[in-house]
Amino acid sequence: MIKVSEQAKSKISQLMSEEGFAVEQDYVRVGVKSGGCSGLSYDLTFDNALKDEDKMFEDSPVKIVVDKKSFLYLVGTTLEYSGGLNGKGFVFNNPNANRTCGCGESFSL
């Protein structure tokens, strides 16, 4: 299960609308890829199609899709949005990460 904070839901809805996506029918694609200063980095995009290997989670109204490989790294994660003085952006609160980098964009297990 992947959860989305209320602040992140609001920002996702705004950004999806700006990019021509509809939060009610399109998806937030979350994944993990090799790279970053800690070994693995997060990937977040908008998408309008499901793939066979996708797992879908809905945290109303946001629909999150994750490929099966990335899901193993992201199970239990909460997607949050920080708009404070220390920087703006999406933050992955991942209980599986043993170590994260200073910017929070990469992690290791």
Outline type? globular
Quantity of strands, as a count:
9
Q: Which secondary-structure class do the elements indicate? A: alpha+beta
Total helix count?
Answer: 2
Order of helices and strands: EHEEEEHEEEE
Ends distance: 18 Å
> What is the residue-mean pLDDT, rounded to a whole number?
86
Q: What share of residues are in beta strands?
A: 35-45%
Main sheet record: 6 strands, mixed
Strand order of the largest sheet: 4-5-2-3-9-8
* Uncertain segments: none
Characterization of the model:
The chain has 109 residues and is of the alpha+beta class. The chain is built from 2 helices and 9 strands, in the order βαββββαββββ. It has helices at residues 6-18, 68-74; strands at residues 3-4, 27-34, 40-47, 54-59, 62-67, 78-84, 87-93, 99-100, 106-108. The chain has a 6-stranded mixed sheet. It has a 3-stranded mixed sheet with strand order 1-6-7. Strand 2 and strand 3 form a beta hairpin. The longest helix is centred in the first third of the chain and has 13 residues, at 6-18. The two termini are 18 Å apart. The relative contact order is 0.25.
Question: What is this structure's SSE topology?
Answer:
Blueprint lengths: L2 E2 L1 H13 L8 E8 L5 E8 L6 E6 L2 E6 H7 L3 E7 L2 E7 L5 E2 L5 E3 L1
Parallel strand pairs: 1-6, 2-5
Antiparallel strand pairs: 2-3, 3-9, 4-5, 6-7, 8-9
